[in-house]
Amino acid sequence: MLNWAVRYYPILRVLKQHDLFENGTLLEIGCGPFGIGTFRKVPFTGCDVELPAQTYWPMTPMIGSATNLPLTDKSFDVVLASDMLEHVPPTLRRQVIGEALRVARKLVIFGFPCGVAAHEADEALKQWYLGEHKKVPVWLEEHMEAEFPDPSLFDDLPGWKVVQFGNESIRFHIWLIQQEAHGNFVRITGGLAKWLPWLMEPLVRRADAEPYYRQIFVLSSVDPV
To answer: 24 phi and psi, to 5 degrees?
Structure first.
């Protein structure tokens, strides 16, 4: 839960800055069973290549590929993809970004681990899991399959203003993933997020420090419809 909060809370702040936290329609690509709905109790559409039989309000589930979204142009005010682009083969990443831009009217947000140091941190985490004789999480195994996305993917996007900022220090990321291998830590932080959300945000803000594990890209349409 804390891992989700670290990456979603900066996105929630962006939505508030653009007056799109409670207003407007939102599509999340690569949402999993919960997506942003864990922290934003406003109806949204979640798209993934596969979803469990049970998903949870406020998400309306949709099956689809990020490289070919089953949607018309400018279908949503906001399109979001949090920690999913690194799971896309490098040759298809630009296509995923293009699809997100195609179906968005106002705002596109991508967040993902970025850079050699971030990738080396996850390599070290995998070795830590193996050394502790714990099962390596699927997401971490997938992170080893290719280099992380590069910021140059967001160069030359006519009609869109791009703002980039860092999220989550590498040191905190390593500590957090190791702690989340223990059930008690997950239960305690899950309760904190559920019952004391006002306390969670200032805590996770302290995790934002260089060198960053994750970069967040906010793309604003220069001619929103």
So the answer is: 85, 165
pLDDT at residue 114, as a whole number: 98
Q: Given strand 104-113, what is the order of strands in its sheet?
A: 59-63, 44-48, 26-29, 76-82, 104-113, 212-221, 160-169
| Residue 183: its H or E element | helix 183-195
Count how many residues are written for the chain. 225
d(CA 189, CA 3): 10
Domains located in the chain, CATH noted: 2-221 (3.40.50.150)
Q: Give the Cα separation of 48 and 29 in Å (integer).
A: 6
Coil, strand or helix at 216: strand
Q: What is the mean pLDDT of each run of 10 residues along the chain (225 residues)?
A: 90 97 96 92 95 87 96 98 97 98 98 98 98 96 97 96 98 95 82 72 89 98 83
- What is 60-100 written as a DSSP string? EEEE-BTTB-SS-TT-EEEEEEES-GGGS-GGGHHHHHHHH
pLDDT of res. 212: 98
pTM as predicted = 0.94
Q: Are strands 104-113 and 76-82 parallel, antiparallel or unpaired?
A: parallel
DSSP state of 42: S
Those residues whose C-beta lies under 8 Å from the C-beta of residue 34, and which sit 6 or more positions away, are 4, 55, 56, 59
Separation between Cα atoms, residue 124 and residue 11, nearest integer Å: 27
Alpha-carbon span 112 to 165, nearest angstrom? 11
